[in-house]
UniProtKB/TrEMBL annotation, chain B:
SUPFAM superfamilies for the chain: SirA-like
Ranges where the UPF0033 domain occurs: 6-30
InterPro entries tied to this protein: TusA-like, TusA-like_sf
Family membership: Belongs to the sulfur carrier protein TusA family.
Pfam families according to UniProt: TusA
Gene: tusA_2
Lineage: Bacteria, Pseudomonadati, Pseudomonadota, Magnetococcia, Magnetococcales
Cited PANTHER family: SULFUR CARRIER PROTEIN YEDF-RELATED
Identification of the protein by name: Sulfur carrier protein TusA
Amino acid sequence: MAQKRLAIIATKGTLDFAYPPLILATTAAALDYEVTIFWTFYGLQVLKKNRNLKISPLGNPAMPMPVPMPVLVQVLPGMESMATIMMKQKMAGKGVASIDDLMEMAIESDVKMIACQMTVDLFDFKHEELLDGLEYAGAARFFEVAQQADIVLFI
Amino acid sequence: MADITLDAKGLNCPLPILRAKKALKDMASGQILAIEATDPGSAKDFESFCSQTGNELVKASEAAGVFYYEIRKP
């Protein structure tokens, strides 16, 4: 049986949205897929060596809150950090892997990471700030990966 | 009788599958990996994992909130 391939475009850089690409990539790798993630725009934050991902309840009325919280309270300074700390605690309590752990497992299982060079330039990121061993490329490279893939996901 | 037992209790998706995959990698063909998990989603996930990877799910049961699986490496 030919090896299946998965290609993911990861565009988001909040703590919560760092999960779907990494969960799917590590799981697909465990199912013997060859996996490539193309990180672009805010997704690049997940590739930082010193990543400091946060969640924001702002603009996300679907986020379950421990107590009802008016939007005007959510904009107060410190709310983002508080929400992030609470989310991390909840995740650890429920046995959910951390993003650091999932990224390590993804790299261990040979998930190929491509960083979008255009957005690296746009945000003035340095290659040294991002994980070692990344490939830097653009949209044409993604299509080369995508046309070989059995599954392509945009997250 | 399992050759190796993996304690995945308290771990949530996708960790039980990832740990199982890692354990199977170091095992010999024909050996059996036993897994204990508390993630209720693991029941369907281990079925799917085995049907897609050629490993054989030889046992799946649940008692008092702990799911128990035995997987034979092909």
